[in-house]
Amino acid sequence: MIDPYYVQPEDHLADMAPQLERALGLTEDDLARLSPEARNLFSARRHLGHTWLDDYEIVVEVTHAPGGCACGMQVGQKIVFDMRHKVKPDLSDAPLCLHLMSPVLSIFYMTFDRAAEGLNPLTCIWRYVECPVTGPDHGAGKALAQIHMRRVDTLEPVTARILTQAEAPK
Amino acid sequence: MIDLDTLEIHAVVTRAFFCANHITEGQRFVFDLKGRLDPERSDANLCLGILAKLQPALLLAQDRAAEGLNPVSPRFRNFDCFDTGIDHGGTGKIYVELHLIDKATGEPAGPVVRV
Hints:
- The complex is a heterodimer.
- By secondary structure, chain A is of the alpha+beta class.
- Chain A has helices spanning 17-24, 28-33, 36-42, 44-48, 52-55, 98-101, 104-116, and strands at residues 56-64, 78-82, 96-97, 128-130, 144-151.
- Chain A is built from seven helices and five strands.
- The mean pLDDT of chain A is 93.
- Chain B is of the alpha+beta class.
- The longest helix of chain B has 19 residues, at 48-66.
- In chain B, strands 2-1-5-4 form a four-stranded antiparallel beta sheet, covered by helices on one side.
- The termini of chain B are close together.
C-alpha cells in the first residue's frame, strides 16, 4: 500500500509528460520505466508548480574564511546554484572551489525530497557547510558558509515552511 | 618537483543519457590542481551531481602530485554522476574521464613521474 499522497503505480505522470519530454527527452515509454521514487521526484511539480525549479535559487555565502584556504575564499563571497544544482557562474563571485561546493549536493537531495513532500525545498536543519579539507591546524583556516534559498525574480529569501500562494510559483 | 600551476585537469564527458542538466558527450569541466572549477573554459553545464563526485579525485590528484606522480591516477580516472539512471531508480546519468592537460598548450601533459 502506497500512501495516497505519493505517486501510485498506475500514475505515469501524464499531466506533465509534455514538460518532461521537452526537458529530458523522456517518452511515454520512458515515463513508464521510471521507478516510483523517480516519479515521486517529478511529482514535486504538482505541489510547487511546474516552474519551481526555475523560480528559486540556492545561495552559498562564505561566512568565515580566516586564511589558509588555498582556493582563496573570502567572507561575503557567494556561489549561486539553480534548483537543478547547476552553478550559476554569472551570479557567483567566489572561486568555484569544488571542496566547498561538494557538501552542498546533500542539501540539493533534500530539496528534491522536500519538494515532493510539498515543503519549502530548503532543509530546516542543514544550512551550514564547511570545506572538508582540514589540515594540521584542525580546520582553523577552513572556509565556512551559510545557505539560503531565494526567489530568482526578487532575490528575496524564502523562509516559509509551506510556500504560500504569494511565494509559490505561478 | 611538479609545477601545479602549469597543469589542469579536464573531466571529459564520455557518455550521457536523460541528463536533466543537458550535459552531452564531449563536453568538459576544467579544474586547476587546487580544485577550483574554471567556468569560462568549461563548456558543460556546471552540475553539482557530477562535480561533487570528482572532489575526491582532485584530492587524490594533489596527493599524487605531491609524490611527483601524474596527478591523474590510471586507476581512478573514470567517474559517473550520482544519479543512478532510469533503469536503477533514477533518471539520467553522465560519465566522465579525467585528463591531465598542459595549460600552455591545451594538449595532454606528458607523463609525470617521480624524480
